[in-house]
Amino acid sequence: MRRRSLMVMTYSALAGACMSVDGAAAQDLNALNARFIFDAGWFFMSTDTRVRLDGKTTDQRGTDIDLDETFGLDDEDRFRVEGFWRFADRHALRLMYFENDRRSTKTIARDIRFGDETFPVGVSVTARADLKVGQLSYDYAFLRRPNYEVAAGIGVHMLDLGLDLKGTLQGPSGSVTRALDEDARTTAPLPVLGLRGTWSLPHNFYITAQAQYFHIEIDPYSGGLTDLKATLVWQATDHFGVGIGYNDFGFRFDLDDEGEFDGRLRWDYGGAFAFASFMF
Fold it and tell me: Which among 277, 270, 276 has a CA at the least distance from the CA of 227?
């Protein structure tokens, strides 16, 4: 009877110790040791898109266009998701994705040469700019302490951009004489190098700063990109937090890809974003 009671007490003590360890681990879960982090929220972005598209079948040099100003393309808030997987103590994968599709119709105040087409002054033109941005990066934390970590990263930044201008030429009687339609698309999977730092602050706040950079001078590409981001997260519970951040991105490339996109593209976006953060 004494032996059975001793075994029961031993098992109870072990179970209590395991529960205490599990509870402590759950209580200590945060942005510096969580295995999975998933962020989802809204990106309050503003854009500046400048493009020149040269002719594919002609030697026509395109007009330098400020798409946002020329066609009145309004900025729109966008849904944005990010993920983080710490698959080992110092190793992690990060991903990000959002879309920005805009359309507008406006009567143009000057001639615009876009690809092989020329849109004359006074024509009503519908402009479309469809953009998809994705990123996958690997991070190695070369400095890792209980209250901060600093990591170096390498990854791929995917930019998928489609541009389209449509209009119609009309005769004196108002009849349509010819449809004008020119489009271009470029998909640029560009490698990036970066640094990321995460620090804990009092009262369950965490701040993360990140910078990425890339430059290339190899045909058919010439140019580079910069991507700067900072976030502040308050961890309300063991598995849930809320955050705010700011992202500033710049993309400047001259392209000489006769099959897809021949010209110049300058694209900047930036703005604040607010999100919910889930940790496991």
Answer: 270
pLDDT at 3: 40
Decide if 92 is inside a domain.
yes
Instruction: Tell me the residue type at 144.
Output: R
Amino acid present at 88: A
How wide is the angle at C-alpha 255 spanned by C-alphas 254 and 258, nearest 5°? 155
Q: What is the pLDDT of residue 141?
A: 97
Q: How many percent of the chain have pLDDT more than 90?
A: 55
**Cβ(110)–Cβ(125) under 8 Å?**
no
Q: In this predicted structure, what is the pLDDT of residue 136?
A: 95
- For the chain, the C-alpha Rg in angstroms (whole number) is 26
Mean pLDDT, all residues of the chain: 85
Distance CA 228, CA 248 (A): 5
- The domain in which residue 271 lies consists of 31-279
Gap between the Cα atoms of 28 and 35, Å rounded: 12
Residue 176: CB atoms within 10 A of its CB come to: 9
Q: pLDDT: is 74 or 32 the higher one?
A: 32
Question: Would you call 21 helix, strand, or coil by DSSP?
Answer: helix
> Domain holding 92: CATH number?
2.40.128.90
What DSSP state is assigned to residue 219? T
| Residue 163: CB atoms within 10 Å | 24
Task: With respect to residue 24, please indicate whether it lies within any of the assigned structural domains.
Answer: no
Q: Find out whether the peptide bond into 220 is cis, omega within 30 degrees of 0.
A: yes
Number of domains in the chain: 1
Q: Considering the domain boundaries, does residue 19 fall inside one?
A: no
Tell me the average pLDDT across 24-37.
77
Q: What is the pLDDT of residue 178?
A: 78
Residues β-bridged to residue 278: 38, 240
Q: Would you state the structure tokens that stand for residue 164, as one six-digit string?
A: 């389209």
Record the pTM: 0.80
Closest CA to 238 of 278, 206, 201: 278
Is 10 among the domain residues?
Answer: no
